[in-house]
Each structure stands twice: as structure tokens, then as C-alpha cells.
Please model this.
Amino acid sequence: MSIWGSLIGGMIGLSLGGPFGMLLGSILGGKISRARAQGGFSAIGQSQKVFALSLIVLSAKLSKADGQVSREELIAVKDKLKIPENELDEVGKIFNRAKEESTGYEPYAQQIAQFYKGNLNVLEEVINILFYIAESDGEVSLEETKMIENIAYIFGLSETQYNSIKESRKSSDKLNPYMVLESSPEDDLQTIRKRYLKLSKEHHPDLLLSKGVPEEVIEESKKTMRAINSAWDQVQKLKKN
Model:
């Protein structure tokens, strides 16, 4: 079953308040009662629903960060996030309402950070996929970069963690391996290896799936893992020279 299906109804079941609750309530023409039961969702199911909603809303905000909504970015939201045609209408309602409303992205980012408090690697994956969306038209604009960087700050990511995610988006022959591994050339190999092992564990797709990252977008996590492994291979070669 697709994570995008019945997204609005699923969020009502979660009794989600805050800006997300107001957004969904405006789509339904009324307020979402926080007193509603949680509708039988598992903990992972709840996390997946919030993750999916977060991507749709932040993608909508990101799509107009540079003052224009390109066709490529709209296609990316549909195709890259693997939204089926039969569920596009419901997802489109959320996307369009988030794009049109006056509320900025910051309150949403704060609510996402609160929901995933203690799961920094899941928040890192949100940042990773926002870059994925921004890249869809061939170039990440300065405005888009600033927005993603500020979301990372709201999430509680350090500058080193943010730069690691950003650098891992590059092809293996262009990335700075030390930056990907949150290290510096001055660090000894053993220190960098510890960082490599830690990052490998935190960004492993199986771990992210267990924490609620939907399977529909897990391929981007696999790319992050490949970047981490490539960076480690490069560092080992550099240290031997």
C-alpha cells in the first residue's frame, strides 16, 4: 500500500495539531479535533505519514523559494516521490494549499523537528530529499539552498552535518570525502574510520525504514550510503599516499 494513499484521512487519525493540523483542517473546511483516536496506526505508520506530509508541504514551500514554480519541480514532486496517478489529486490538494497559503516554512520545520526529536538521522533524510527535489530542474538556486540550510538549522543539524548531506549529493569523482565523512584531512585514519562506521549505521536504509522513512523514498538513502562508502574508499587511498 502506498504511503501517499489517504494521506489527509491518515493525518486526521493522528490528531495532528499545529500548522499541519491547520493546513489539513483548511482543506477539509473545518478544524481537526485533537481528541480523535489515532485510528489504529502503528508507530512506524504514524512516522511514515508525518514524513510523507512533511515532504509534500516543504516541497511546496521550496518550489516557490526562488520566486517561480518550475514545471520540472512539480514533476519531481510527483515522479521522484513516486506518487501514483490515482493518489495525485489528494496529494495535490495538500501541495497547492501549502504553496498558496501565507504561512512560511519555518513553523512546519519546527513541528517536524519536534515530532522527530531524538531521530536526527530521519531529519537528515528530509534535508537529503529536499536537495533531491531542488536538483530536479538541473540547478539548486541560492534561494533554495538558503531555505534548505535554514530548515537544517531549525532541525538542530550542525553545520558539519548539513555540509556532509550537501556534499554527498555530488558524484563520487567530485565530492570532498572528508566533508562527507564529517572529518578533516588532519584527522588520522582511525578517527575517520570511527566516523565512517557511525555514519554508515545512522544512514543505513534498514534503520531509516524502522524509524518511519517510507520505502517510496528510501532509494535516496541508499545513494547517501554509496556516497559514504565512496568517501571512505577515497580517504583510505589518500592516507596511503
The first helix runs from residue 7 to 13. The two ends are 51 Å apart (CA to CA). The chain has one domain: 7-240. Confidence is low (pLDDT under 50) at residues 31-41.
